[in-house]
From TrEMBL:
Annotated Ca(2+) 2 binding sites: T200, D244, T247, D252
Sequence ranges assigned to domain Plant heme peroxidase family profile in this UniProt record: 31-324
Taxonomic placement: Eukaryota, Viridiplantae, Streptophyta, Embryophyta, Tracheophyta
Catalytic activity: 2 a phenolic donor + H2O2 = 2 a phenolic radical donor + 2 H2O
The EC number(s) this enzyme carries: 1.11.1.7
InterPro entries: Haem_peroxidase, Haem_peroxidase_sf, Peroxidase_pln, Peroxidases_AS, Peroxidases_heam-ligand_BS, Secretory_peroxidase
Listed name of the protein: Peroxidase
Binding site for heme b: H199
Record text on cofactor binding: Binds 1 heme b (iron(II)-protoporphyrin IX) group per subunit.
Organism the protein comes from: Oryza glaberrima
Keyword Plastid in record: no
GO terms for biological process, alphabetical: hydrogen peroxide catabolic process; response to oxidative stress
Amino acid sequence: MAGVVITGRALVAAVAVVVAVLLGGAAEAQQLSPNFYSRTCPNLASIVRSGMASAVRTEPRMGASILRLFFHDCFVNGCDGSILLDDTSTFTGEKSAGPNANSARGFEVIDAIKTQVEASCKGTVSCADILALAARDGVNLLGGPTWSVALGRKDSRTASQSAANSNLPGPGSSLATLISMFGNQGLSARDMTALSGAHTIGRAQCQFFRSRIYTERNINASFASLRQQTCPRSGGDANLAPFDVQTPDAFDNAYYQNLVSQRGLLHSDQELFNGGSQDGLVRQYSTNPSQFSSDFVSAMVKMGNLLPSSGTATEVRLNCRKVN
């Protein structure tokens, strides 16, 4: 009978190991470390940096696009690479959700970096970690700060279109909604205002700011007129305009200067400076770029620590677009 008992315990232990490998969750949060791949993939940082440098050199806007992918990934069940999954005949993921459809971009850049990473260290680095590093490097390559990225995330084996539709703030969000939605992720109003500074780079489609430039009063008249030149009252929905009219491809604090002068492109942008609780902070950031950079980095690190809940099936995907 003793032999049978030992065998049972061994079986339980083996099952526990398999479960631990397949399931991500709160325990993983304690394992994130900047040195996670120091032995298993020592060239990771340089591979990602090189891939992002090439992408940004080809199209500066790509730095903003990758940053947005990271943000939209982390706000939906944690930073798990779920936004990178393609839809299939039996699966509908996050790419087709309202906040992502026809606007989320840069997937091919992550694919290219993943290919290089796999060639160097096969089956080792998650797509979620690659996206986190790429977002950091895109910011830095456009003149913004850099920071240490804690690594060790795993890739989710599923995605949630419904969560993408409900968790991500839209271009028409009020200040109260922004504070609430970021608060749901454990991010403070200060974090929200600092992270919104990501709009110091990138572009937005006409359909997302048309209402503001034609109907809102808290907008600089000359700025509204400028934007109306490429965003007619009807048609041209996909026409692009830079978030930051001053330095559209430089990561700086001009975004906040624009808000103070009522030149925020989206309704949700201008909500940060519209007689509300964040006005004072926006003024600080508009005159103190180092304060903005410091708070932005802190908020990015905090957001990057959002992980899937305990019990979520995870893996290291070999192809970021599909489960293994």
